Amino acid sequence: MKSELPVGWVYAKASDVCVSIPNGSTPKAHLMATRGDVPFVKVYNLTFDGSLDFTRDPTFVSRETHETLLRRSRAMPGDVLMNIVGPPLGKVSVLPDTFPEWNFNQAIVAFRARSEAIDNRYLANFLSHEAEAWASKFSKATVGQHNVAVSDCRSLEVPLPPINEQRRIVAKLDALLARSRHAKQALASIPALIERFRQSVLAAAFRGDLTRDWREQNPEVEPVSTLLAREARSTKRRVSRQAIAQARAAGAKFDDLPSTWELTSVARVAELQPGYAFKSSWFSAQGIRLLRGTNIVPGATRWEDTVHLSEERRREFSEYELRAGDLVIAMDRPFVSAGLKIARLTSKDVPSLLLQRVGRFRLGNAIYEDFLLAYLNSDHFKSHIRDQATGTQLPHISGNDIESAPLPLPPLAEQEQISRRIGAAMAALERMSHEVTSATSRIAVLESTILQHAFRGELVPQEPSDEPASALLQRIRAERDKPGDNEPRPRSKRRRDAKVA
């Protein structure tokens, strides 16, 4: 619903205040290169702060491609580019003058402003504000890709103040939004610092540094080698010598461990149970859920896309039935952008069965579950898995790849102490992470409120001496509708009447 505008303002269609609003084109891959004549903008080059980041994976096309195949999507410095495919929507950038001409792909639309009607930075700020509404609408109505039609961009109603007031609004927005953007940049750098600190805590834990004081206070603790020897005598499980040898070779970096520790392999303290290869023809709409790799994300599970096995067949596979507390790992595509796909199951994840290409750790008596989970999330283990993963289209790891990971193992009592200290540090980092998320959300709300005031005419005072936008718009429409010199002019009625007479 349109809001009431101040005196001198008017609503105008984007097509009325822009010379052109084309969407982009995407040439075949062989026509794009890392060097060339004309820069080619992709969505990842657009930003949320109005600037263009062409330092990220820059792509170019040849002059010939620019002027023939991609002639429809030629762009100039000052054009306002906005992504129309998301999520996320709302990336809006003004093209700088670092190149005399640009081109852009099909997921982007370009607004070339009529400079006498609308300030391009005023337009860019309005598009950022409007994209929030589009994103909100799509998030409620659509799952998956969000697409804004080019026709919707052209018919977009822009609240248009006098041109001088637009410039005053832009200056005010620059001053106000600069502070919030600095704050956002500072907040955006914190998650990486948190992750670095998280890994530094884990690295200290698996060097023995985190519990140096505890060892000094508890010198009589039994070395873990004694525990491992007892474990080996009491269990019938045979540990692969190859896995142990690989672990010791890969674990050369774990030098100078405390004397009560031992460098061993995951296989020495835990067994990985692979899931069962249930036939897809057995899948049913109802029954017990099957835990697949797609159901595991770093640190959690998700069950939006679920397959089931009938309750009748469930009884045949009781050894694959999962329990709350089980540690599971995805063995196909084990890494996503957020990290390694490892999770500890909760009561919400059961009942369920272990499916093929997902592994469950079965722990012996020589390791604490919390200690193993901390190790599985450390850079030591992730680095080992990256080195072992095979396949490019579908990277995967085997049970032996996982079990052969080198493991610096302290005595049980120290494992418990390490787990407690890691837990306290991770809880503090988690609270900090929530604070960052909360602060980022508050800044987004503040920016949205500032933009709402700007486009309701409440950010700067109106000047009676400014020419009303309606008069300006009327001139533009009259100029646009005026026939060109080469167009036929209508015949005069007076001359036609005289001829009849």
Folded structure, characterized:
- The protein has 501 residues and is α+β, with helices and mostly antiparallel strands.
- 40% of the residues lie in helices and 17% in strands.
- It has 17 helices and 26 strands.
- Strands 2-10-6-8 form a four-stranded antiparallel β-sheet.
- β21 (335-336) and β22 form a beta hairpin.
- α5 (163-188) packs antiparallel against α15 and α6 packs antiparallel against α15 (412-454).
- The longest helix has 43 residues, at 412-454.
- Residues 495-501 have low confidence and may be disordered.
The spatial strand order of the largest sheet comes to: 2-10-6-8
Helical residues, percent: 40-55%
* Beta-strand segment tally: 26
Number of H- or I-type helical stretches: 17
Proportion of residues in extended strands: 15-25%
Structural class, by secondary structure, is: alpha+beta
What radius of gyration results from the CA coordinates? 32 Å
What profile does the largest beta sheet have?
4 strands, antiparallel
The span between the termini is 56 Å
Oligomer: single chain
Tertiary shape: elongated
Short description:
By secondary structure, this protein is α+β, with helices and mostly antiparallel strands.
Topology:
Elements: E1 10-13, H1 14-17, E2 18-20, E3 38-41, E4 59-61, H2 63-67, E5 74-75, E6 80-83, E7 85-86, E8 92-94, E9 102-104, E10 108-113, H3 120-141, E11 146-147, H4 150-154, E12 157-160, H5 163-188, H6 190-207, H7 212-217, H8 224-234, H9 241-250, E13 262-265, H10 266-269, E14 270-274, E15 283-284, E16 288-291, E17 296-297, E18 300-301, E19 307-309, H11 311-314, E20 327-330, E21 335-336, E22 339-340, E23 342-344, E24 352-354, E25 358-363, H12 369-376, H13 379-388, H14 399-403, E26 406-409, H15 412-454, H16 469-481, H17 493-500
Parallel strand pairs: 3-9, 16-24
Antiparallel strand pairs: 1-12, 2-10, 3-4, 5-9, 6-8, 6-10, 7-11, 13-26, 14-25, 15-19, 16-19, 17-18, 20-23, 20-25, 21-22
Helix pairs in contact: 5-15, 6-15
